[in-house]
Amino acid sequence: MSASSSVSAKASEAYDVVVVGAGFAGMYMLHKLRGQGFSVRVYEQGSGVGGTWYWNRYPGARCDVESMQYSYSFSDELQQEWDWSERYAPQPEILKYANHVADRFDLRPDIQFNTKVEHAVFDESANLWSVTSSDGKTVTAKHVILATGCLSNARMPDIRGLDGFKGKVYHTGHWPHEAVDFTGQRVGVIGTGSSAIQSVPVIAEQASHLTVFQRTANFSIPARNALLTEAERESFRARYPEIRRFAREEARNGIYTEMPDRGALDDGDNERRSKYEARWSRGGLTFMSVYNNLALDQAANDTAANFVREKIAEIVKDPETAKVLQPNNHPIGSKRICIDTEYFATFNRPNVTLVDLKSDPIEEITANAVRTGGKDYEVDSLVLATGFDAMTGSVAKIDIRGRNGQTLNQKWAEGPKTYLGLMSAGFPNLFIITGPGSPSVLSNMIVSIEQHVDWIGDCIAYMRDRDLDTMEAHKDAEDKWVAHVNEVAYTTLYPQANSWYMGANVPGKPRIFMPYIGGVGPYRQICNDVAAKGYEGFAMTTAEPAQKRAASS
Ligand SMILES: Cc1cc2nc3c(=O)[nH]c(=O)nc-3n(C[C@H](O)[C@H](O)[C@H](O)COP(=O)(O)OP(=O)(O)OC[C@H]3O[C@@H](n4cnc5c(N)ncnc54)[C@H](O)[C@@H]3O)c2cc1C
């Protein structure tokens, strides 16, 4: 089947599927659908592939899931042949990998770069989407897939005077392509989330002085990054079938690691401390999986949080600075836990100052300084490490209109509503990869991306094989799923934090816990069961016979 056969005359081009975004999700979606014989057009607003790794070029940017796992598994040849150089590859290497994948699978001919999708309107009479892009063109497609990314809409802070700052302003999520050299400069970094925690130690080495403006102290675990040896790579590759299976089916967060079999309070103080020490020395995100109740039980969580707070006090020499760096307003792990290379030790450098904004928020930015607490901190350049309008931000920027002209933004005004994080009722044939209501940002995202891509591709093929015209989430299935996502979230400590998972970093955004916390394994099983039952919870309509459609048009 090709949508070209039923194209409305107005559109110049017609595809079976339009995919928005050419990050890891859009790239694999294209590969999958083409392999299934569909015609596909991908639109990407950047000038190259890679998404996150195309935009986030700030100093120190690298993945925090180990590269041997933060990589595609859909092609065994690819995972056997690609050599990751470090335990956590730096951004340029991940971008190189994305480009390698694009070349290896010949993806570029079907991707239109430098083109932003601005409108997607569902035509109920033709059961087709009309997609209009920044190049002024409109194409039609039977299906639209949003591979727009959970962390792709960089959030500019609303600070008085920012526009009048005379020096250079950089956002970590929109870093320039040319190298930025801070040598000899006074630099201010605003924000202390993951991007700041990665970039601060690197910028501190260049800058004559670095001032870090912190609103919320965050927990961070040492990465213990290192070069990978050939033996380590080989060992991983030999075990890939089991590692990938485990990550998909058993791990809650899509990362292969030991599964904890006990809670933090089941061990005595000494035993518990030695386990935390061992994970601290090993480094990385698996610190949080040492016990099975750190995300569930406040007293258990406190043991891990106290351990990290003590480590910060050990590392940071000035007790006042250490105190400000110790997180104390959220359970450990309830905001995305960061991993770092020498972040806390950086505050021992004579050229680094920490400014606590908790009691004195930034008042304004003047032509050459950041003003807070009645004091001006003079800077030549400003780095905004202020994160993203996560999960819904990029979707919201597109004018998406479904049945009865309803916009997705109207429907999601009080928070995103989806069935399985994949579709939203009233928006037929519109899929979201790692959408709100799916594990997405709580997981190794490539595991979640591959699962969604496979599910969506199989679903679209199912529709083709049965000559189905539309597929749409039932409102009651969606309502039940939204309630379930919420209910599971509130069995954990996560909603206690003012995190971007909750939309709390964006003024005015509804406070809803957006990702599904039930774990990637159980979630995959739910999605598979839904598909096995003929896509339970979704309504499907059969294509109208051509003559009937012609008669009614
Ligand atoms: C600094 C950083 C580090 C990260 N590290 C990890 C990690 O270690 N492990 C992990 O699991 N996850 C990590 N993530 C999350 C990361 O976003 C995902 O792992 C993954 O790269 C997402 O891929 P994606 O294709 O879904 O989205 P993205 O990579 O965000 O790609 C989406 C693309 O869609 C494009 N787009 C959006 N809207 C439009 C539009 N209207 N028209 C055209 N194009 C559009 C964007 O330009 C972008 O290129 C990290 C994120 C950041 C920001």
Give me the secondary-structure topology:
Elements lengths: L12 E8 L3 H12 L4 E4 L8 H4 L20 H6 L9 H14 L6 E2 L4 E7 L4 E6 L4 E9 L21 E4 L14 E5 L3 H13 L2 E6 L5 E3 L7 H9 L1 H10 L19 H14 L15 H18 L3 H7 L12 E3 L2 H4 L5 E5 L5 E4 L3 E4 L2 E4 L2 E4 L8 H4 L2 E3 L6 H4 L18 E3 L12 H21 L2 E6 L1 H15 L30 H13 L5 E5 L3 H7 L1
Parallel strand pairs: 1-2, 1-6, 2-3, 4-17, 6-18, 7-16, 8-9, 8-16, 9-12, 10-11
Antiparallel strand pairs: 4-5, 5-6, 13-14, 14-15, 19-20
Bound molecules: flavin-adenine dinucleotide (FAD).
The site of flavin-adenine dinucleotide has 37 residues, from helix 1, helix 2 and helix 14.
Describe this structure as you would to a colleague.
By secondary structure, this protein is of the alpha/beta class. Helix content is 32%, strand content 17%. The strands form five sheets. Strands 1, 2, 3, 4, 5, 6, 17 and 18 form an eight-stranded mixed beta sheet that branches. Strands 7-16-8-9-12 form a five-stranded parallel beta sheet, covered by helices on one side. Strand 4 and strand 5 form a beta hairpin. Helix 1 (24-35) runs parallel beside helix 14 (445-465) and helix 14 (445-465) runs parallel beside helix 16. Residues 1-10 and 549-553 have low confidence and may be disordered. Bound molecules: flavin-adenine dinucleotide. Flavin-adenine dinucleotide is lined by residues 20-26, 43-46, 51-52, 54, 56, 61, 63-65, 70, 116-117, 147-152, 195, 394, 397-398, 433-434, 444-445, 449.
